[in-house]
Amino acid sequence: MHCIVGLGNPGREYGNTKHNIGFWVVDALAEVHGIPVNRRRFRSLFGKGRVAGHEVLLVKPQVFMNNSGQSVDLVARFYQLAPSDLLIIYDDIALEPGTVRLRRKGSAGGHKGMQNIIGCIGTDEIPRVRLGIGSPPTSQDARHYVLSPFKPAQQQIADELASEAVHCIEFVLKEGIEAAMNKFN
Question: Which CATH number fits domain 2-184: 3.40.50.1470, 1.25.40.10, 3.30.2090.10, 2.60.120.380?
Answer without folding.
Answer: 3.40.50.1470
